[in-house]
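Issue: copy button drops trailing tokens. Both records pasted manually instead:
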Amino acid sequence: MLEGIAGDLRVGLPVQSLHDGDKATHEALRLHAVLEAPEAAISAILMKHDHVRELVDNGWLKLFAMDAYSGKIRGYNPAAGWVDAQPASLTADDNSAVSTRLSA
């Protein structure tokens, strides 16, 4: 929620949207982006753009690189670099909801 003409975010709103004061109301969701691009190119972009790298390093954005030829997907882990990403679940009813686990 924005407050005032300057567009300042109301203090405490991120916590209030996830917690009711006694317990968590829901899990925070993060954007997962799968890019069909070489890992080196994605890494170069992260090094060039601090604001994007901070989103990834702080867990707000999860990056995955898909090899155009093999279809293999690897995820970016800020501590370990590019690691294999293994799908934990994929249902025929909802193929957009893929839960992944990054192995470090």
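Record 2 (pasted manually too):
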Amino acid sequence: MSKFFKGKWRGIPTALITSLVLLALTAGIVYAAVNIWSGKLDVTVEECVTLEWWNGSTWVVPAQGGTVTAYLKPGESKDMLFRASNTSSGEVSVKMNYTLIERPSGGAGKVTLTEGFIIETPLPGGTVNKRGDITISASSDAPVGEYKFELNFSRH
């Protein structure tokens, strides 16, 4: 053993060379054992709530910013059925807001929206087809014409 410590290679002690090689190998093995994978992780959060309207014969998913149409005569009411599904495993809160944005002259307060059974909120994860409804009513003296409401279903 003492011969090992006294040996030299090109003037450099062999014990020092051996120590440096062992240190480099150990560091390489430890690094290789710890660093199994490195790279990027891209995450995309997708909308989990789907809203559908009943058009009288089938359920329809309206386009974002699209229009749902109802026809009434003075003195009539109509229930507009909708349903929501939550494909997330977690619960989400869903809220509906509406605003009358256009009406014929003299039509103020003549056509109203009433929230009937609104979807459960928070909407539990994995919920499929939870139904709700909105009642649209035209008073008997409602002027003929288009009444436009802006509906907004939002997730909180």
